[in-house]
Amino acid sequence: xxxxxxxxxxxxxxxxxxxxxxxxxxxxxxxxxxxxxxxxxxxxxxxxxxxxxxxxxxxxxxxxxxxxxxxxxxxxxxxxxxxxxxxxxxxxxxxxxxxxxxxxxxxxxxxxxxxxxxxxxxxxx
Length: 125
Description:
Elements: H1 2-5, E1 9-12, H2 16-21, H3 25-41, E2 45-50, H4 61-78, E3 81-84, H5 85-89, H6 92-95, H7 109-122
Parallel strand pairs: 1-2, 2-3
């Protein structure tokens, strides 16, 4: 797909569903690396993103951190930019009412705006 549509930039943000489902970490790592390889082979710029932290009653902080660490490792190994929302925001509990509403997974407009700002900050100006 990437070599067909040739986007200039791909933001790959695939963590939340995997940490909630407790996807096998070796499978997750392999699947992410395959996606990264295809994106880079197509000549697209890439930013890896970790999902917004989930409420710890939905999935433990330790389980979330496992997937965050995998994405950080992939960013380093593949020499691509990374936006880590856990590093940027801390926990869901720390940002409820700021970037989250009652939803334990998805940010509100302010959170989405901060995600966009993080991407913008990585762009050459």
